[in-house]
Amino acid sequence: MDASDISQELNNDPPVVDTRFGGTREDPTIRGSITNLSSENFTPKRIIAAFMQGMVNELYNSFEILPSALKEYIKTVIDSKNGVRKNIHIQELIKKRFNKPLLLAAEEEAAKGAAIFAAEND
Prior knowledge:
Blueprint: H1 3-9, E1 16-18, E2 33-35, H2 44-64, H3 68-71, E3 77-79, H4 82-85, H5 88-98, E4 102-104, H6 109-120
Helix pairs in contact: 1-5, 2-5
């Protein structure tokens, strides 16, 4: 499956996935959902594409709450998560949803920071 396949799976009445299954920092009671299922769109490809789009939408929602004046200065999306780094489909969905270029950090900073902390505090 290439990146264009994912976009095609999200066209024409796709399933919709809200990936906030564990709530949010602001509201831990929110639960995720899968909606808009039909016998035509309930396929593995479409479900996978909908989950990826749901993850990207969740990231985009964090961007949307920023003040407009700040959003104007953001020209590039930077991500350091392995889930994005290792998945070209999610990368393409991020570029499309944010309508901005995507820059991937060289390594996952959280994992590196945890390793350094563990080594220094052994």
